Amino acid sequence: NAGVTQTPKFRVLKTGQSMTLLCAQDMNHEYMYWYRQDPGMGLRLIHYSVGEGTTAKGEVPDGYNVSRLKKQNFLLGLESAAPSQTSVYFCASSSIKLADSYNEQFFGPGTRLTVL
Amino acid sequence: KQEVTQIPAALSVPEGENLVLNCSFTDSAIYNLQWFRQDPGKGLTSLLLIQSSQREQTSGRLNASLDKSSGRSTLYIAASQPGDSATYLCAVRRSDYKLSFGAGTTVTVRA
After folding, report:
1. CB B30 within 8 A of CB B52
2. Which of A81, B5, B35, B103 has the most CB atoms around its CB within 10 Å?
3. Inter-chain Cβ pairs, chain A and chain B, closer than 8 A
4. pLDDT one-digit tens code per residue, A2-30
5. Three-state secondary structure along A11-79?
6. What is the rounded distance in angstroms from the CA atom of residue A56 to the CA atom of residue A31?
7. Residues A77-94 pLDDT 10s
8. How far is A55 from chain B (nearest CA, A)?
């Protein structure tokens, strides 16, 4: 049981390049989330998904796109990377099988992205 | 919009001292509050989750309290050890399944 995994762990891009970050979970969770973490700012929600085939915007969605074609995978895309997107990206997942207030979020190890 | 604040941003204590970490939030209409630990360059590990109906939650040397009416939670770590050195984040779960995070308190326990 691997929990939440993220690929890749590190990446360096040049301004204008594109890339996709992959998140996979093996806990059969319905909800999945993408966050970014910047120094002194905590984690901010980029996009999230409440089920296969659905996505929604979070607090800071501009410059990112997501897809949830399979329940276990949640992809985060950067179409044209900018230096402001240099950050650490975390994926998380949670279940809705229990009562709402028990929805603990489980996090992946993160992807450290640098845009030059 | 839910604002979550953690003060202080950093804390250094000698080994054996009890740690008190504070988290405050502006909107008391929460579903739960979660405390996480983050080691440098690593992901988040969940420590404790307190339901909105609970006043506290305990796990080993950790105890977290919740006072919704005043918008506060406190994480207590008893008899701190150097291995407790990490950044501690609190996150408040809103009604729409999203978490609002504080910026964290970085703890250093000196041997």
Report:
1. yes
2. B35
3. 64
4. 799 999 999 999 999 999 999 999 999 99
5. EEECCCCCEEEEEEECCCCCEEEEEEEECCCEEEEEEEECCCCCCEECCCCCCEEEECCCCCEEEEEEC
6. 11
7. 999 999 999 999 999 998
8. 13
Top-confidence residue, B95 or B44:
B44
CA distances to A80, B16, B41, B82 from B86, in Å: 34, 16, 11, 9
Closest Cα to residue B39, out of B86, B101, B107?
Answer: B86
User: Tokens representing A36?
Assistant: 């970014």
For residue A10, count other CB atoms closer than 10 A to its CB: 9
User: Residue B24's Cα: distance from chain center in Å?
Assistant: 10
Q: How far is B74 from chain A (nearest CA, A)?
A: 18
Q: Among B4, B47, B29, which Cα is nearest to B94's?
A: B29
B93 sits in the region (left: phi over 0; alpha: psi -120 to 50; else beta) called beta
Q: Check CB contact under 8 Å for A40 and B9.
A: yes
Tokens of B108: 């250093």
3-state secondary structure B32-88: EEEEEEECCCCCEEEEEEEECCCCEEEECCEEEEEECCCCEEEEEECCCCHHHCEEE
Contact between residue A60 and residue A50 where contact means Cβ atoms under 8 Å apart: no
Q: Which of A23, A43, A111, A113 to mutate to test the interface with B (most CBs of B within 10 A)?
A: A43
